[in-house]
Automatic annotation (TrEMBL), chain A:
This is NADH-quinone oxidoreductase subunit M. GO terms for biological process: ATP synthesis coupled electron transport; electron transport coupled proton transport. Residues 139-443 form the NADH:quinone oxidoreductase/Mrp antiporter transmembrane domain. InterPro entries: NADH_Q_OxRdtase_chainM/4, NADH_UbQ_OxRdtase, ND/Mrp_TM. It is found in: Endomembrane system; Membrane. The chain crosses the membrane at residues 31-51, 83-103, 123-149, 186-208, 234-255, 297-319, 326-347, 353-375, 395-418, 430-452, 472-491. It comes from Streptomyces populi.
Automatic annotation (TrEMBL), chain B:
GO terms for molecular function: NADH dehydrogenase (ubiquinone) activity; NADH dehydrogenase activity. Its main location: membrane. The lineage of its organism: Bacteria, Bacillati, Actinomycetota, Actinomycetes, Kitasatosporales. It comes from Streptomyces populi. This is NADH-quinone oxidoreductase subunit L. It is found in: Endomembrane system; Membrane. One of its GO terms (biological process) is electron transport coupled proton transport.
């Protein structure tokens, strides 16, 4: 038996979380370093997984399978396809940056404050989230997936509710209230989604007699498992609802701005760049594979919702006065693109959507973390409290600009490739939808450049005059992310080569082929 | 030799990377690094040009394939370059004028503390612009297209501490993004129609034609119109013209290089490059000529009313690009002349802007021509070089503009039919207005009595000639303004050079070339004469008179910004504000309310604001924990 690489990639951060939590109270710096090392170790394991993965090999690779709850046929079953392995790599890649960026976010407050921040807890919770997200990307057993899909809410709840920005414009008391409101809202939305999914999971077991993704897919393909049309649709909706809450899709999005606004910037990145990706990933893996007919049936409605998300999220981003909420609404717009790409049911759309998940993770991390550095210097999230930062902190402003340009999908940076693939993949099948989605690129320029202009340019405001430029730790966070954005913008092949075969499989699951060009076809 | 193509781009790109990441230690030498790398690119271009001239006209397309960029299903985009006569023309113009403007900037930006960055941005611009004209497919062209947009954004807003500069930069980027939508959609249409958007298979290479003409005319018209939308954004054509005037907030060398000589002509490049598409879509071509004709007059009228020397020149730029777009819309009759005017315009307009910069340099950065006057005595070199540029742009016989503009007017008549008469008439009228507004600029700046006054801090301007780093580029460009047109036209050199790429036909003009030239000359004298009577014979008031209805409208750019403000800005603000309200109350409320009817969510949410949050959360977790525990237990049982 070979080394269980996939299990190890998830178990290492899980053990790291326990160890970090157990570090004695006085040794908080040691806890930070431990967490950072564990996350780097996980990154190394994820890198090995990526190298060991053969894009042209079997659909699911590095598989592991053990009996777990025999009575219900629940198995501990792991395996990654190209999409899964890319997202595991993204998760493992981002966590060290999240930890490094949040290095001081959980330090004990100055004397006199009644709150003591459990540094160990903060970093342990981040590692716990990492472990659960990774296993969600690896699980090929529906029940196993469900457990961790739900369980990751617990550490996320504490991360949102327990740790906020240092200074708050309405004082500590109000901040605590808003934080717990955001945390509970996050939890309730996702729990409701999860409960509906649980019903669908059980329903699926009743119909199919198995939780194994591959078994069910095979049985459906060879006709041994017949599902009534209405049954399939109901089950699809149950799954999709949960994923649409997590992604989030309009109109189920309202928890995200609260959560991202109140959480610290690294936690906001954890939400939008890592945890939410489980939702879109699961649409690709579970909705399309388990319920291909129902997916096609629901496509028109989903496309409309995705389109609304794109335009609505962007318009609301334009109207925000709070930097972090602005980024949250921008993310809603971007998730619209991802979902659009998935349900356009074309090769370009799905490969683009997967690439979008990776690129959005990196670009949002870059923008949000720099925004976090900015906010920690001034102690305000309000755009109106800034002005002229570029003059006093040019490196901070420069990196913020690059993050903004990535967010508006400037050609040459990674998000452009994925956004264009999604657009072209949508356009080939639904031209009108594709054209409307293209308006998103104008609105994205509007909200990012207005944000940049209001915070960074103009006369220097007195409150920011003494603002220090990026420190070495902060540069260590931002520089690699920017380098990646440029590299993947120029050379996205390493990811598309891994993702393409998996997308081809999914396309054949839903029995769809790409539309052919007119002129070629005529010849 | 073909492997040198990538080096053309690599040199300035390296410069941008080094200068922008290098930090303060490069502050002292930044301008030299930038200038040397720009010049290196020009030398490579010259070497390639010499090599190209040594080959027969049918054999002059060089290609270089670097790597496969995006490959997903049938969607394939490569990073590859195509250097033919059309791109070669641009490459020489970009690197040549670009290098001169680097040299000029050494003097112009001498006292700016952020000079290193300025040169970094200039190098970034060169790299992006070269990528735009060298790309061998539309998606890679798009990268250069937005790259120059980014460089333009950074350079317009270079003095970011000025709110007006930051606003102008953002406006330019946003308006261009509307055009970019057109380019995006055009590429998507090409992909769905042809399965490719690479120049080779689509537009054809020498010897065999592409598949561009095989699609239905409706599809081709759609593609062509989307490309035109893109061109309108980048080239400041009506209706996406409003950003160019504001772009003058950038340092003057930037206005010369980007917002006069090179980037703003990218739209003309796009149309001429896509000739195979436009030739098969006559309806779209008609729209192109209309856009060009309207912009030609729009820019000229605006140019007549501006007292800001740079904004007057910006109106002129818009108008001259209108000529090029009009010519490009004429099809094979006009392509060659569009590009020829583009090159000669590159010389004289860059020269005029550098002259304006030189004047500002000597006048404490004053831009109001009403506060100039009589400067010819103080700045002789600037006066002579600016004067030659002036004569070139109005089409004084024998100078560059005479040849290139005249050809466009002839070609417009040669389109034939009513359209030909209308377009030709518009082009002729434009020539008269050009003569008027340029004479006005010339007289207000260099002739008459001096009108300058001490500025707010009481400093009296001491007009003086600029240093030689600034005057030498102006002299070189003046040479181009004088001789380029004749050089291109003698023996139809330029036509023979470009014909293999763009094709060329003479058309069938209802009026003889001589008649056109004579009419142009008469209108030139009339336009310049009126300006002389208004500004040369009588003294120029220091504060602008109220002016006629048209003058007032033209001063406000024919109300373009007022229109945008009312329709887009105000409307947009109302829309976003109401959406923020809707999201907060309605969407959030409805979802919470639906959940409430199912599970009492909203009641619980309300409770939480009353302070029950913690207890409630704990109970939720209790539930979740029990769920997990139960599943784990089942394993044990």
């Amino acid at each position: 038996m070979s080394f269980p690489l996939l299990t190890a990639t998830a178990v290492l951060p899980a053990l790291g979380a326990i160890a970090t939590a157990a570090v004695p109270a006085a040794q908080r710096v040691a806890a930070k370093w431990l967490a950072l090392l564990v996350s780097l170790g996980t990154l190394a394991l994820a890198a090995v997984t990526l190298v060991r993965f053969d894009p042209d090999g079997a659909r699911y690779q590095l598989t592991e399978s053990h009996a777990w709850i025999p009575d219900f046929g629940v198995r501990y079953q792991l395996g990654v396809d190209g999409i899964g392995v890319a997202l595991v790599a993204l998760t493992a890649l981002l966590i060290p940056f999240v930890i490094l960026a949040g290095w001081h976010d959980a330090d004990p407050m100055e004397t006199g404050s009644r709150r003591w921040r459990p540094t160990q807890g903060f970093f342990a919770l981040i590692l716990a989230v990492e472990a659960m997200v990774i296993i969600s990307f690896e699980a090929t057993d529906v029940f196993l997936f469900y457990i961790f899909f739900e369980a990751m809410l617990i550490p996320m709840y504490f991360l949102i509710g327990g740790f906020g920005d240092r200074a708050h414009e309405h004082g500590d008391e109000a901040a605590a209230t808003q934080r717990s409101y955001a945390a509970v809202k996050f939890l309730l939305y996702n729990l409701v989604g999860g409960l509906i999914m649980l019903a669908a999971v059980i329903g699926l077991y009743v119909v199919a007699g198995s939780f194994s993704l591959q078994e069910i897919v095979h049985a459906r393909a060879d006709g041994s498992l017949h599902m009534a049309t209405s049954t399939e649709r109901w089950l699809f909706l149950g799954f999709f609802f949960a994923f649409a809450v997590k992604a989030p899709l309009w109109p189920l999005h309202t928890w995200l701005p609260n959560a991202m606004g109140e959480a610290t910037a690294p936690v906001a990145v954890l939400i939008t760049a890592v945890v939410d990706k489980v939702g879109t990933f699961a649409m690709l893996r579970f909705c399309l594979q388990l319920f291909p007919e129902a997916s096609k049936w629901a496509t028109p409605a989903i496309l409309v919702l995705a389109l609304i998300s794109i335009v609505y999220g962007a318009l609301l981003a334009v109207g925000q006065r709070d930097i972090k909420r602005l980024v949250a609404y921008a993310s809603i717009s971007h998730f619209g693109f991802i979902i659009l790409g998935i349900f356009a049911l074309t090769t370009q759309g799905q490969s683009g959507a997967t690439l979008y998940m990776v690129n959005h993770g990196i670009s949002t991390a870059a923008l949000m973390l720099v925004a976090g550095f900015l906010i920690s210097r001034r102690g305000s999230r309000l755009i109106a409290d800034y002005g002229g930062v570029q003059k006093v902190a040019p490196v901070l402003a420069g990196t913020f600009l690059i993050g903004s340009l990535a967010t508006l999908s400037l050609p040459g940076l990674a998000p452009f490739v994925s956004e264009f693939l999604v657009l072209v993949g949508t356009f080939t099948r639904y031209p009108v939808v594709g054209i409307i989605a293209t308006f998103g690129i104008v609105l994205a320029a509007l909200y990012t450049l207005v944000l940049y202009q209001r915070t960074m340019t103009g006369p220097v405001r007195a409150e920011v005059a003494e603002m220090p430029d990026l420190r070495v730790r902060e540069l260590l966070v931002v520089a690699p992310l920017i380098a990646l954005l440029i590299f993947l913008g120029v050379y996205p092949k390493p990811i598309t080569d891994i993702v393409n075969p998996a997308v081809k499989q999914t396309m054949s699951d839903v029995q769809k082929t790409d539309p052919q060009p007119e002129v070629e076809a005529a010849k | 030799m073909e492997n040198l193509i990538a080096l053309l781009i690599a040199a300035p790109l390296l410069g941008a990377a080094v200068l922008l990441c290098g930090g303060r230690r490069l502050d002292a030498v930044g301008q030299w690094i930038g200038t040397v790398l720009a010049a290196a690119s020009f030398v490579i271009a010259a070497v390639l040009f010499a090599d190209m001239l040594g080959k027969s006209p049918e054999d002059r397309t060089f290609t270089q394939h670097l790597f496969s960029w995006i490959a997903v299903g049938d969607f394939r985009a490569d990073v590859g370059f195509q250097l033919d006569q059309l791109s070669m023309t641009f490459v020489l113009l970009i690197t040549g004028v670009g290098s001169l403007i680097h040299v000029y900037s050494i003097g112009y930006m001498e006292h700016d503390e952020r000079r290193r960055r300025f040169f970094g941005y200039l190098n970034l611009f060169l790299a992006a612009m070269l990528l735009l004209v060298l790309a061998d497919n539309y998606l890679l062209l798009y990268v250069g297209w937005e790259g120059v947009g980014l460089a333009s954004y950074l350079l317009i807003g270079f003095w970011q501490h000025k709110p007006s500069a930051a606003t102008a930069a953002k406006k330019a980027f946003l308006v261009n993004r509307v055009g970019d939508m057109g380019l995006s959609i055009a590429i998507m249409l090409m992909f769905t129609t042809f399965g490719t958007f690479a120049f080779g298979p689509l537009l054809g290479t020498e010897g065999h034609s592409g598949i561009a003409g095989d699609a239905g005319e409706g599809k081709l018209t759609a593609i062509a119109l989307m490309l035109l939308l893109a061109a309108c954004g980048k080239s400041a054509q009506v209706p996406l013209q409003s950003w160019l005037g504001d772009a003058m907030e950038g340092p003057t060398p930037v206005s010369a290089l980007i917002h006069a000589a090179t980037m703003v002509t990218a739209g003309v490049y796009l149309i001429v490059r896509s000739a195979a598409v436009f030739n098969a879509a006559p309806d779209a071509q008609l729209v192109v000529t209309v856009v060009g004709g309207v912009t030609l007059l729009f820019g000229a009228i605006v140019g007549c009313a501006k007292d800001d020397i740079k904004k007057a020149l910006a109106g002129s730029t818009m108008s001259q690009i209108g000529y090029m777009v009009l010519a490009a819309g004429l099809g094979p009759i006009g392509y060659v002349f569009a590009i020829m005017h583009l090159v000669t315009h590159g010389f004289f307009k860059a020269g005029l802007f550098l002259g304006a910069g030189s004047v500002m340099h000597g006048m404490n950065d004053e831009v109001d021509m009403r506060k100039f006057g009589g400067l010819r005595k103080y700045m002789p070199v600037t006066f002579v070089t600016f004067g030659l540029g002036y004569l070139a742009i109005i089409g004084f016989p024998g100078l560059s503009g005479f040849f290139s503009k005249d050809k466009i007017i002839e070609a417009a008549f040669a389109k034939g039919g009513t359209e030909g008469w209308i377009l030709g008439g518009v082009a002729l009228l434009g020539a008269a207005i050009t003569a008027y507004y340029m004479t006005r600029v010339m007289i207000m700046t260099f002739f008459g009595e001096k009108r300058w006054q001490p500025d707010a801090e009481g400093h009296e301007p001491h007009p003086h000639e600029s240093p030689s780093s600034m005057t030498i580029p102006m002299i070189v460009l003046a040479f181009g303004s004088v001789f380029a047109g004749a050089f291109f036209s003698i023996g139809d050199r330029f036509v023979h050079w470009l014909e293999p790429v763009t094709g060329h036909s003479e058309g069938d003009s209802p009026v003889s070339a001589l008649t056109v030239t004579a009419a142009t000359m008469v209108l030139l004298v009339v336009g310049a004469g009126i300006a002389y009577l208004q500004y040369g014979r009588s003294s120029v008031p220091v504060t602008a008179p109220r002016g006629s209805l048209l003058t007032r409208a033209a001063r406000r750019d024919l109300y373009q910004d007022d229109f945008n403000h009312v329709v887009l800005v105000r409307g947009g603000e109302h829309l976003t504000r109401s959406l923020v309200y809707v999201d907060h109350t309605l969407v959030d409320g409805v979802v919470n309310g639906t959940a409430a009817s199912v599970g009492g969510l909203s009641g619980r949410l309300r409770k939480l604001q009353n302070g029950y949050a913690r207890s409630y959360a704990v109970s939720m977790f209790g539930g979740a924990a029990i769920l997990v525990a139960a599943t784990l237990l089942m394993r044990a049982v």
